[in-house]
Amino acid sequence: MNTRARRTAFVLLAGLCVIAGLAGTATAANRADPGAARVPYATIEGTGSTWSELIVQKWIADVDANGMSVVYTGGGSTKGRKDFAQNSVDFAISEIPYQGVDENGNADTSNGRDFAYLPIVAGGTAFSYQLKIGNEQVRNLRLSGETLAKIFTNKITNWNDPQITEDNNGREFPDLAITPVVRADGSGTTAQLTTWMDKEYPSIWRPYFGQSGLTSYYPVKDGTRMTSQAGSDQVMNTIKSSAGNGYIGYVEYAYPVNADYPVVKVLNKAGYFVEPTQWNTAVALTRAQINQNKGSQDYLTQILDGVYRHPDPRAYPISSYSYMLIPTGADDQRMTTSKRQTLADFIYYSLCSGQTAAGPYGYSPLPLNLVQAGFQQVAKLKQADNGVDLTDRDVRSCNNPTFDGKNPNRNLLAEQAPMPPECDKIGQGPCGTDTGNNDPGGEGEDPDGSGPAGPDDGGTGPDDGTGGTEIDPETGEPIAPGDSGTTGEAAYATSTLVEDRPGDSRTFGWLAVAELAALVLVPGLFVSFVRRRRSASGAAPGQGGR
């Protein structure tokens, strides 16, 4: 199957999953009391991460059909955090949490506004580039982390540098100046990149930056070819422009996937060059350390040191999560019951059906434990306002390729990730396959779904990931205590759902039936659902309603 056909198949599959998700929403609404008064939706606004923006805009388009009006403007993670602190938006999205004090000594806090972090999407920070030999674009470039750090600190300035040749096993590139493209705005992507360089290559990064730590504003030195652009889309447009030969920049993997443009295969700790597909990102993030202290304002935020150094051959080292900031104060000056309801339902869609589109779009769907924890954070909207309706919110109805319904500490997508081919091992190859096409590639694709086992399966347990725990086949809950499968890695705790309801005690085995029914019934169910909401709220046509 060629690249375009494969991508089309991915998108069609995601579309079918979304249809199933919408059908599930309609079915849940029909189960509720049809005579009960429903809170009408209200437009909500957010700003922030452009790293996350492509999938967020996809979700916004999806929920618009349900009468939800969500407006999201990028501008960068720093802008999102500032706008949220200034009460000018209803939510924000950022790759990094509030820092307390930023790299310039300025306050970086919520300014007293009550909030919670909610993981919203995972992905890999990719290095897209334009490099031609003659008129032919190179699509299989390989670079080590050290080489990348030197490129983005002006220590390597030409594509014919011996270190680049060595990374590509002797393959030489033209005598062509390198132009690094960095972000001009306050960017979470920049913060993630500079955190990685500070942790892994401090002797290269810190002399360039002049201090230790991360920065959201990339420092550009006078007299160099480095250029800066605002937003991920402008970085990508600059790289692929007619004048872009020799350019390289950093963006979320979704951008080169969308542009059908190549990305660098980055050397990982296992000695393999890999790209940030949803599979390789999922593997890497099994080593993310998540703050599990529910009493901490930083609950659910990430430490990525273990991700950078993951020894699995499939792991993409610069993988991370982005976070939504949601207002949790009962007296929040921007929020109303209608806005909280819209935000809750938008988040519910994003964490469930919306995650099925993450992979095809160039992101990686969230694992079960983080979706569960996200549901707990949404519950804070109801704690702030009892008028918010959170019925029929059960994580077991989410259709997500990472989920093992019987064990929240397993990540099926990571376990099923194909091993990289031997031609991508250091000292061999390079492989002749293209990058930037969202193709899992690799070897040993596993048709039975059990997943190839690498040297380290990412901490899913000493055997099959259940750690010897006996699981109730009906409820999916552990019958006896056992190994959680997180030894030496992320301290993932099994989260509790907002509440269990009799109508929600179904297991993942029903999903296939639900999807099949959705394909047949969704048009009528969806129309009925929207009419019921509008009729119950008394909303005029075009105003939406709940």
| CATH H level, superfamily name of the domain at 44-424 | Periplasmic binding protein-like II
**Strands of the largest sheet, in order across it?**
2-1-3-17-6-12-10-11
Biggest beta sheet attributes: 8 strands, mixed
**What is the CATH topology assignment of the domain at 44-424?**
D-Maltodextrin-Binding Protein, domain 2
Q: What is the annotated CATH architecture of the domain at 44-424?
A: 3-Layer(aba) Sandwich
Provide mean pLDDT, rounded: 81
Spans with pLDDT under 50 lasting ≥5 residues?
16-36, 444-546
Q: Whole-number radius of gyration?
A: 23 Å
Determine the N-to-C terminus distance: 43 Å
Q: Kindly provide the name of the CATH class of the domain at 44-424.
A: Alpha Beta
Could you provide a short overview of the structure?
The chain is an alpha/beta fold.
What would you say this structure looks like, in words?
Keywords: Membrane, Signal, Transmembrane, Transmembrane helix. Residues 1-28 form the signal peptide. Residues 456-468 have a biased composition (Gly residues). Belongs to the PstS family. This protein is an alpha/beta fold and 546 residues long. The protein has a domain at 44-424: D-Maltodextrin-Binding Protein, domain 2. It has 15 helices and 17 strands. The protein has an eight-stranded mixed beta sheet with strand order 2-1-3-17-6-12-10-11. A three-stranded mixed beta sheet has the order 9-13-14. The chain has a two-stranded antiparallel ribbon with strand order 4-5. Strand 7 and strand 8 form a beta hairpin. The protein starts with a helix and ends in a 9-residue tail after the last helix. Mean pLDDT is 81; it is low at 16-36 and 444-546.
